[in-house]
Amino acid sequence: MEHNNHRLTATILSMSLLTVMAGAAIAPALDIIREHFSDASPMLVQLIVSIPALLIIITNLFFLPISRRLGSRTIAIGGLLLYVVAGAGCYCVNNIIAILGLRALLGVSVGLVMPLSTGLLSYYYPPQEQARLMGLSAAMNQMGGVVATLLAGLLAEVQWNYAFLVYLLGLIAVVLVVLFLPNERLGSANKRGTPFKPRQLLKFHPSVVGMLLVMLIFFVYPTNFAVVTSQTTSLSVTMVTLMMCALDAVAFVVGLVFGQMMHVARRAMKYFAPLGFLGGYAVLAHDSSLLALMAGSCLIGLANGVGVPYLNTIASIKGGRTSATTVMPLLSMALYLGQFLSPIIVGPLSGALYGAGDATAPYKVAMVLSLVYLLQTYLTRHFQSLPPKD
What we know:
This protein is mostly helical. It has one domain: Up-down Bundle (Growth Hormone, Chain: A). The chain contains 16 helices and no strands. The protein has helices spanning 6-19, 30-36, 42-61, 63-69, 72-89, 96-124, 130-158, 170-180, 198-218, 220-232, 237-256, 258-264, 269-286, 290-319, 327-354, 361-381. Helix 6 runs antiparallel to helix 7. 56% of the residues are buried.
């Protein structure tokens, strides 16, 4: 079914604006929040960024049965309203456990919205448009990151809890969904089986494992950059926020031109993300000057801007119209599992490998993970047939 409806496209892309905000939007405020909750464990503070991921994963497990019983508009409205209430609700509480509870509910909301934000593109649009649309989806995701990261950082300088008001941006998507999104039951296209059979994982494992690695590596940045930079430089919160926005801005531009990049450099695209991550973290690990921090941030933005739409594109072409209820929940689970596990894995590894006194140790662990991702890409993609040209 082909839809040349720009309002429908804009509505689907509006959901992509919000998904990155589940965790990364609060990252610039993390150091201020850590100071406010100085008696709490540093791991609890980091979980403010990563706890939504765990609930996103759990929610994705049930996405297929939900999509069989409810239409896509109903799911989207419910998810987006919960997104606004749980996200902005943290403004009203002053207890870290209560905040983590609301962040968990935020994860449930994104678990409902995330498969729709990419899966609806493969449901309504033909395969030859997938690279362009997945690039646009990633670009909108990063635009949301730029806006939310900038606003959260500026609001946090007023008071720590003001940063959570950025989630009120979800009301824009609510209006568009109510007006323009059809209420089709996507699960009816996948009447038999579940998206989580071993054969599905075998079929899509290069993209699923790749997405897990992308997020393990990328999330080292939002969970550590503000804290590490405060320890190694005298930069203000505003300057740190601007640099984190630069990362999202680079990823946004890459998303806009991703379709053309796939057309011009299809064979090389698979290596852009692992090499970009490796170079970016190498710069951050070995130089704390302003120029190096900007260069490292931009390289990581390039890697993330290529990695996510590349994996979504390859998987959506392979999954076809049932992607919204088969491979996209798998990719969503892998994406947010990586976000959740990143601080849990990287923190202990940093201390074990480089010692507690090395502030840049998380970046060095990210370099090791980038090498693992590069090897995984070569072993699973090098001999694969390429996706069709646009």
